[in-house]
Structures are given as structure tokens and as C-alpha cells.
Specification:
alpha/beta, two-stranded parallel ribbon, globular, TIM Barrel
Amino acid sequence: MLATSRSAMQENFGDRTERELTILLYHGVTNSPSAGIENYSGKHIPADDFAHQMQTIRRHCTVLSMDDIVELTLSGKPFPARAVAVSFDDGFANNCTVAAPILDDLKVPAVFYISSGIVNTTLMFWVDELEACLNLTQASNIALALDTPRTFSLAAREDRIAALETIKQFCKRSPSAVKNRVLAELKTATGVAPAVEQADNYRKITWDQMRTMAENPLFTLGGHSLYHDILSELPPEQMMRDVNLSIDLLNYHLDRPIEHYSYPEGQAHHYNDAVIDVLKQRGIVCSPSAIHGLNSAGTDLFHLKRVMVGFLNCPFPFIHLVG
């Protein structure tokens, strides 16, 4: 699974970026050092790298907002040459403190898809809890029940990364109840209580920060579930409640309609027609996936692909334009 993921992430799109829409997907932009395997995947990219990438698309590409993409798609018009959009998932504090000032300085629009249940809290995303458990434990090995009983060596850094990837991928394929069971058992096995204070990159955005960002015409705020549970794995009534509450929270705190969304995890099996129907009923006009790829004109606005820059060494698709 990991090898396949890395291969797909590193795909070279060649001249397709000249005529197709590229939606860049980020999670965090950081100035903070990492210890152990924290941020081993590159989910939070260095601020200098991000600034250089934004400078490149500002100089050499046609930067679009998600509203621009919706308008072009609904009108049947083609995307302009080197069309690119910037998006963020989840809702980390560094979206506001590090990424937003860079974007504002360069006048680059961006959309921030926020898991609204974690805003203003010390809650952690479950994938970060997995990472913290395996990063901070003093155990040299652990036993855990996945699809079968497994024992994981944690002797070396590479062992911890391999264990994390195996556990994470199992959880992403599993119903929410199974994922929660595995996480609880991992906390017991490792003896670690994950907390946002354990790494700056775990800290979440606040409502005050989001309101400030929402006042900037460059920035769009959208939904991303309540707590980053995989929507297609939730029972239908729970999925509907999650989507509705996630949007209601954003509406209430930001005092504006929410028209944009993205699916947690965002691979093909993490959302379905039932999820899309609920989103449309709530007035959502566009919800991109996290499936790796570019988009030709006319691509369905609820099946757009994105490029997760930096994650597992996924290259910036306009690296050939960097001067």
C-alpha cells in the first residue's frame, strides 16, 4: 500500500499542467522543528518551500479560486492555461499563522476546508494520535489486533514508520467503530496519551482566527466533517448528522453560507453518492476528493482530483517553472 501510494504521489504530469486544472492540496505549513517521526510524511511543509511554490504559481500560472472553478465548470468554459488552485484540509493553526500571511502577501487565493468539531479545542485528529503514540512510546514492540493479531517492532525509526503506515491504512479501510477500537488499544499498548502540546504542528485553528481569515476576500472557508471521520464508513443517519452539524457550526461562527466542502481522507472509497446527495441538499456546490491527479474541463465538481504537495515526497507539479 505505501509503495503504491508513493509511486502515485510522484507521478510526473508533464505538459498536462499546461491545459488541465491542478488543485494543490496542503494540510499545514510550518516553521517548527519535528522530533522523531512527527511529521515524517511531510504533511506540514516548510514555510520557505511553500512561499517559493506560491511565488511560482503567481508568476507563471493562472491562479483560480474555487468559486472561479465552479463558474467555469457550470458555464462549460475551458480552464485557462496552467490553471491552478490552492486548497488546505483539516484546520491546523499554522494555516492561519504561517500559510495565510504568505498567501496574502502574494495575493494568492485559497480555500480552507475545516473539520469544524476540532476548532477551538485541544482535540487531535485520529491520524495524529496514531503518530504521537508510536513516536513517543518507550516500548520496543507492541501487539495489536488489526484484521489479525499483529506484533510490531518499534526498535528503529523505520520500524515505527512502517508500523504507523500499516495501522493507519487498516483504519482508513475500516468502519469508524473499528478505527476507534484500534486507537484505544494502541494508546494502552504504547502507554501514551496523545496531546496537541506534544508538537506545534498538532495545534488547531481557533474561531477567532477563522473569522479573521473569512474577512479576507482571498480566502474561502469550507467544511471537512466534524472530526475527520470517513463519511462513507458512517451509518447513514450518523453521516447525515455529521455533515449537517459540520456545516451548521461553520454557518453559526462565521455568519455566512458555506458552499464548499471536501471529503475526509478523500479517496474513492471514502465518499459515495449518498454523501454527495447530502452535501448538495445543504447547498454545497463543490467538494473535491484527495485522489491524486489533474482535472480536464467538465470534470464533475464533486469528483475533482488534487495533488497533495510534499506528502510522502509528492513533488510540486510546477517544479520545472521554479526560477
